């Protein structure tokens, strides 16, 4: 008799039915764009994966939806042509995005999984059963030298459509990702043009040429994950914080206003400190142990001169701060929030410039272990309007990250499906710590 796990895997079967390439509808000629210091450290990350799940009958109109998505993609790529390019190097070995009309363009994969329902996927808290719905699992960004920079998989479900996207993280960050996705949706809904075209000139943010002598390692997984045999068993879970829970966390964090005239703690700082403290509890760390908090911050308005929100590329930097576990967990919540707030506010144009110069003098490719000891690291942002990505058949039922770029302590924050100030938190933790976190009633916030 088949076990429950075997039954689940059986129902999660995904069959690939076709693969095509989509190019900009107009001929654009040859175009090149140099990668800059903000982009280059992510070459040894994996492709950034997103999954959007849409409900609605697909029996008769799946082919129509796919055709509509491809047509919209061909139009939106006129503005976002870099997505249809490849990575390359100039004669001096400096990485760049290269676009040419002869390139293959964006890869679009069609698939069927008619035994999987939308509810099956929205109930899934890990990423194991989502893997087959998103392309490029375990593929390094550096492979963009010979692969498309964007691959999209459209899967016909029992009662809906799953859109799995793999973006090359060396050419864009989260802000640019969702700018592209919302622009594509806008075109599919009937707009004749993109309302906010991407700002494509990278060297205005950092006009420095850095040569990297990089080639693919024999075992790509070894780059970011270290020795797989000694790696902890990670599990993922989505914690949904309602608007009331977020307000309660923020109110508690701001219960003792600082006497030094500091600003009140933001929603992000309050929630981040809440998660940081409770993850340290769940890990059963000693008071004398150190713990690091890392956030990948958008620098568009921090650099001098500021860059527009429509800047297309990576304009993020990791901000690190550390403290002793005992100080974090034995003090009220405002202690952790204050540590985070000070680190973020100190990351101004001067700090960004110094970090860039330091990196340029001795380039170093990021590895996940660089995030720091006993780390909690935040990617994505609840500010991204992920539930507004409507291609003409309604808003997504769920938005998730794939299995790439996860490590012990990695968080992805998304706006909650219920709207308002609700926030969904995807957390990857070692199995034992996750089990303890799930039983932590103070973490879950009873409202």
TrEMBL record:
This is BAHD acyltransferase. InterPro entries: CAT-like_dom_sf, Sec_Metabolite_Acyltrans. One of its GO terms (molecular function) is acyltransferase activity, transferring groups other than amino-acyl groups. Coiled coil: none annotated. The lineage of its organism: Eukaryota, Viridiplantae, Streptophyta, Embryophyta, Tracheophyta. Pfam families: Transferase. Keywords: Acyltransferase, Transferase. GO terms for cellular component: cytoplasm. It comes from Manihot esculenta (Cassava). Belongs to the plant acyltransferase family. The keyword Repeat does not apply.
């Amino acid at each position: 008799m088949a076990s429950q796990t075997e039954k689940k895997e059986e129902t999660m079967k995904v069959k690939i039915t076709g693969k095509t390439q989509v190019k900009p509808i107009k001929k654009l000629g040859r175009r090149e764009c140099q990668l800059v210091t903000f982009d280059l450290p992510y070459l040894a990350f994996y492709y950034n994966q997103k999954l959007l799940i849409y409900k609605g009958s697909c029996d008769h109109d799946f082919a129509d939806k796919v055709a509509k998505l491809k047509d919209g993609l061909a139009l939106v790529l006129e503005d976002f042509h870099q997505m249809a390019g490849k990575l390359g190097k100039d004669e001096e070995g400096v990485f760049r995005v290269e676009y040419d009309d002869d390139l293959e363009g964006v890869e679009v994969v069609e698939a069927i999984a008619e035994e999987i329902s939308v509810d099956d996927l929205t109930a899934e808290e890990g990423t194991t059963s989502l893997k087959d719905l998103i392309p490029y699992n375990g593929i390094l960004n550096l492979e963009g030298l010979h692969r498309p920079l964007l691959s999209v998989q459209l899967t016909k479900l029992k009662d809906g459509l799953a859109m799995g996207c793999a973006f090359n993280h060396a050419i864009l960050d989260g802000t640019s990702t969702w700018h592209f996705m919302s622009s594509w949706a806008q075109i599919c809904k009937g707009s004749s043009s993109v309302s906010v075209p991407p700002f494509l000139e990278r060297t205005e943010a950092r006009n420095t040429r850095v040569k990297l002598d990089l080639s693919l390692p024999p075992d790509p997984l070894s780059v970011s994950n270290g020795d797989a045999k000694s790696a902890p068993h990670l599990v993922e879970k989505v914690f949904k914080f309602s608007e009331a829970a977020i307000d309660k966390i923020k109110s508690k964090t701001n219960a003792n206003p600082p006497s030094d005239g500091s600003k009140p703690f933001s929603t992000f700082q309050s929630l981040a400190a809440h998660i940081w403290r409770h993850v340290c509890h769940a890990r059963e760390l000693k008071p004398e142990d150190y713990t690091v908090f890392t956030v990948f911050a958008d620098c568009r308005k921090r650099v001098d001169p500021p860059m527009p929100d429509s800047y297309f590329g990576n304009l993020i930097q990791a901000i690190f701060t550390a403290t002793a576990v005992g100080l974090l967990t034995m003090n009220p919540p405002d202690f952790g929030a204050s540590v985070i707030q000070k680190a973020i506010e100190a990351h101004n144009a001067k700090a960004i410039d110094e970090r860039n110069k330091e990196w340029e003098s001795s380039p170093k490719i990021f590895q996940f272990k660089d995030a720091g000891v006993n780390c909690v690291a935040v990617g994505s942002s609840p500010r991204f309007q992920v539930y507004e990505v409507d291609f003409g058949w309604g808003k997504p039922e769920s938005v998730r990250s794939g299995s790439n770029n996860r490590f012990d302590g990695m968080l992805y924050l998304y706006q909650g499906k219920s709207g308002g100030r609700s926030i969904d938190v995807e957390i990857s933790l070692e199995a034992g710590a996750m089990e303890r976190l799930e039983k932590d009633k103070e973490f879950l916030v009873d409202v």
